[in-house]
Amino acid sequence: MQLDLPVKNVQFAGLLLAERDGFYREAGLDVALTPLSSENAYEGLAAVVAASDHTVGSIESGLFLAGRAQGLPIVALGAMFQQTPLCLMSFRSAGIRTPADLVGKRVVVHGDGQEALDAVLQNVGLSRSQLTVVEGDYGNDLLVQHRCDAKQGYMVDELVELQSQGHDVVALPFGSNGYAAYSQVYFVSEATLVKHRDALVRFLAASNHGWREAVRDVPATARFVVSRHVPSLSLDYETRSLTAIVPLLTCESPQMALTTPGTWKRNEAEFLRSRPSAKLPEMSQWVDFSVAREAAALQP
Questions:
Q1: Does the pLDDT of residue 288 top 60, yes or no?
Q2: In angstroms, rounded to a whole number, what is the distance separating the alpha carbons of residues 151 and 107?
Q3: Cα separation of 136 and 133, whole Å?
Q4: φ and ψ at 205, to 5 degrees?
Q5: Nearest-angstrom CA–CA distance, 81 and 55
Q6: Domains recognised in the chain with CATH numbers
Q7: Phi/psi zone of residue 128: left (φ > 0), alpha (ψ -120 to 50 degrees), beta?
Q8: pTM above 0.90, yes or no
């Protein structure tokens, strides 16, 4: 399992508990959870998975679509987060509660957040000309130093970090304001799907079992992850992060890992609108909904 972060933090809590509690072993699987490294950096993650016949990857749905548009033979199986945690962070005093409040404001987004912002603005009939949009890095300094009014972040990461530091910040979620996308999408190469389909069903079922155990006692899960995997991160941060993750796991379906054609169609449309020259084949070639459905049916 190729993770899309260089650390095993609570964003993978379900997988970490499935490993700890032997759920993978009980499913007849030998699973290695591999953090991101310099050799398979985030931007190249789709290509790494595409080249393997035994690797499951975790990726943002936009990056998955970008890889598929480049011709990589990859297939999405489901998603850990049924809604993207992408958001715009701002100080409460800035008064940004809805997309309309962005008018006249200076907003910083990352390179991978442009289409998300466009979708949010279009959803309420706004255009970029009504605000100032600049591209920035992933740090929080621009916001903390009040060099912008709002900045892109993740509700389960950068926002939590700022709140843990005592900043009075709030989030404008992209997912509930017009941007359809999944996060931590499970995906494999076409070769892996053909060769290991039954094992993939069992892998998702065991991972879902791990996630259900992880959210049963959030404080205890956070303590385990910090003590075993990320002692450099604070317990407060990891507890807050996992608390923010919980509603994302089943916000589209009560069954974990399931995705829907409707959300993928909206995500695809937003992706192609921001990249007029990109092409994608029929959805049936790059999403297999049956693996996650069969895994849900194996729920203990």
A1: yes
A2: 6
A3: 10
A4: -60, -45
A5: 19
A6: 10-83+181-297 (3.40.190.10), 86-173 (3.40.190.10)
A7: alpha
A8: yes
